[in-house]
């Protein structure tokens, strides 16, 4: 049995093959290798397979081409299947069938006689990494939102392919980690994963880094694995020409162009923080290079577009800090959750991680409070949009209301103080907004409006005050 952690849900597998020995080989190999609950169904009939696929989804589906009626049958069953990984199987000498099946979407072609242990290792590697992606880590991909679940599904689908991958997203969203996840779940997972930071190197240095002069260029070092070209927005034309030739021929040519080319087997991946189509539109990238790199595409959404992921990410970072550094903070107070969930996070996940690590390092206790957020500098630079507009309207023409530099660290924004007071009052009265409003001497509607980030209170929001 493998040594991967045992998740609570079973790995669901359907094997479709009229050969009972082939079904036995795959089933036995999975049972001996996979260290998690298994539900393996097998059938010798295509119609039975269709019925099963109509009733439930599977993590792994293997289709013997002879059993399902060749490539046309494979195409039909595959199109109707709800499965993460679909494999075709058939005789080893049918090279054209293998190529066609992969083009039709198969993760791979399993040659007969079947190598059960090799198949089981591939499945183990794929789903062990899948389980690692969802919970996340410091710097990890974490998400419960529909957009992130869709991203995880896309990673699972494209990772087994050999085509280049183009990853877009704002700075701090996790593009490098996404590329690592694709590599880790690919058939090249045992090979090298090389990263070249294209945005930080000049033309000559970047050419040397990619092509090398004495066999140490990234393209050669990534042989058998993956090469990530990070931030490809402004590649020099000569480098673009080199990459186009490599994609077309597999030839690596040194910077001097006076040596014999060397063949390298590399899966290319590229990232950009810009809108991908704009790279071609504004002439930053040759169309032929762009379309060769942008065969399979992934987009990481900014944190502000998936606010439901903010608290889970922050809690994941807290847990990792506790595991690594022995810190005690393990959760966020409701007031603190409200604050971080409503923040726009222009620096995305990287900004959130940095804040949480700073708080975990500087504070004791078990609960992160709104005061801890303020002390760590949260909100000093940017308030919610509704609050910002009010601040702009109130600002003096000469900007005289701006605090002095030496006072900035001591003065908290009014919106943050208000939010903390309101949330602490609600928490003190066990969520009873009416009682919290009475204690604060404001009306409940003011609390509702401020929690929504609405406008300032009107006269009707103020409590009635009687004199004498």
UniProtKB/TrEMBL annotation:
Biological process per Gene Ontology, one example term: regulation of DNA-templated transcription
KW DNA-binding (keyword) present: yes
Entry-annotated residues carrying 4-aspartylphosphate: 64
Keywords (A to Z) from UniProt: Activator, ATP-binding, DNA-binding, Nucleotide-binding, Phosphoprotein, Transcription, Transcription regulation, Two-component regulatory system
Residue ranges of domain Sigma-54 factor interaction in the record: 141-361
PROSITE patterns reported in the protein's UniProt record: RESPONSE_REGULATORY (PS50110), SIGMA54_INTERACT_2 (PS00676), SIGMA54_INTERACT_3 (PS00688), SIGMA54_INTERACT_4 (PS50045)
Regions annotated as coiled coil: none
Domain Response regulatory: 12-127
InterPro entries named among the record's database cross-references: AAA+_ATPase, AAA_lid_NorR, CheY-like_superfamily, Homeodomain-like_sf, HTH_Fis, P-loop_NTPase, Sig_transdc_resp-reg_receiver, Sigma_54_int
A GO term, aspect molecular function: sequence-specific DNA binding
Name the record gives this protein: Luminescence regulatory protein LuxO
Protein's organism: Methylobrevis pamukkalensis
């Amino acid at each position: 049995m493998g040594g991967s952690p045992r998740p609570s849900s079973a790995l669901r597998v359907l094997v479709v093959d009229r050969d009972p020995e082939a079904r036995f080989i795959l089933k036995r190999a999975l049972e001996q290798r996979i260290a998690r609950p298994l539900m393996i169904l097998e059938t010798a009939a295509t119609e039975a397979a269709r019925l099963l696929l109509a009733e439930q989804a599977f993590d792994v589906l293997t289709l013997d081409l002879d059993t399902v009626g060749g490539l046309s049958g494979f195409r039909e069953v595959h199109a109707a299947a709800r499965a993460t990984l679909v494999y075709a199987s058939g005789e080893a000498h049918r090279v054209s069938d293998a190529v066609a099946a992969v083009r039709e979407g198969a993760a791979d072609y399993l040659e007969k006689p079947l190598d059960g242990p090799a198949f089981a290792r591939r499945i183990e590697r794929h789903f062990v990494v899948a389980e690692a992606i969802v919970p996340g880590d410091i710097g990890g991909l974490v998400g419960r939102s529909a957009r992130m679940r869709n991203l995880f599904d896309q990673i699972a689908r494209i990772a087994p392919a050999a085509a280049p991958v183009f990853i877009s997203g704002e700075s701090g969203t996790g593009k490098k980690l996404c590329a690592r996840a694709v590599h880790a779940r690919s058939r090249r997972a045992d090979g090298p994963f090389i990263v070249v930071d294209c945005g930080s190197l000049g033309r000559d240095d970047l050419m040397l880094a990619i092509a090398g002069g004495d066999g140490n260029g990234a393209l050669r070092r990534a042989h058998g694995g993956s090469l990530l070209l990070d931030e490809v927005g402004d590649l020099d034309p000569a480098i673009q020409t080199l990459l186009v030739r490599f994609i077309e021929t597999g030839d690596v040519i040194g910077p001097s162009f006076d040596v014999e080319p060397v063949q390298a087997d590399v899966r290319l991946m590229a990232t950009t923080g810009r809108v991908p189509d704009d790279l071609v539109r504004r002439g930053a990238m040759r169309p032929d290079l762009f379309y060769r790199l942008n065969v399979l595409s992934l987009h990481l959404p900014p944190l502000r577009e998936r606010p439901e992921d903010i608290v889970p990410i922050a809690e994941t970072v807290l847990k990792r800090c506790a595991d690594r550094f022995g810190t005690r903070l393990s959760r966020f107070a409701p007031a603190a959750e409200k604050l971080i969930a409503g923040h726009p996070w222009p620096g995305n996940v990287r900004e959130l991680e940095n804040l949480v690590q700073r708080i975990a390092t500087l504070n004791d206790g078990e609960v992160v409070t709104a005061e801890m957020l303020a002390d760590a500098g949260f909100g000093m630079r940017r308030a919610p949009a509704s609050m910002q507009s009010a601040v702009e309207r109130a600002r003096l023409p000469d900007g005289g209301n701006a605090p002095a530099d030496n006072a900035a660290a001591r003065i908290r924004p009014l919106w943050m103080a208000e939010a903390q007071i309101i949330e602490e009052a609600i928490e003190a009265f066990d969520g009873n907004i009416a009682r919290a409003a009475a204690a604060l001497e404001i009306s409940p509607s003011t609390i509702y409006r401020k929690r929504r980030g609405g406008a300032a209170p009107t006269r009707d929001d103020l409590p009635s005050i009687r004199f004498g």
